[in-house]
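User: Second chain of the day. Same drill as before.
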Amino acid sequence: MDRSFEVMEVNQKDSLAVFTREIPIFRIFSEEKAREFYVDYLGFQVDWDHRFGPGLPLYLQISRDGLTLHLSEHHGDAVPGAGIYIEMTGLDSFFDELKSKNYAYQRPEIQPTDWGTRIMTLTDPFGNRLRFNERIQE
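Assistant: Same format as last time:
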């Protein structure tokens, strides 16, 4: 049985759809731990937050230097243990910033990859992984 796949060209000029931005959603279980990690440690700012009522799950948007994330306590919005691959510049500076904060739950390191980047992987308190990658200049 032939299992090869035919690659089809798509003429994007014929499409009316335009994707303007993607925003990953990470599942969280504690507003306090999320703010400690994302705001205090990583340096994100809270753009807005929302609850449908007192005592109901939190949904918030955070951002830093062009990177936007949504964090949600809502069951079904996301699965714990997700990951995101983030392309960036200034990895050494970001690393130095994080290292100076002495966050008790992380000891970041920068490692070279086989695909021409240097990577620093952090795991949030909910098991979500953030992979910060900078292309190695040759």
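The chain has one domain: 22-135.

User: Great, on to the next one.
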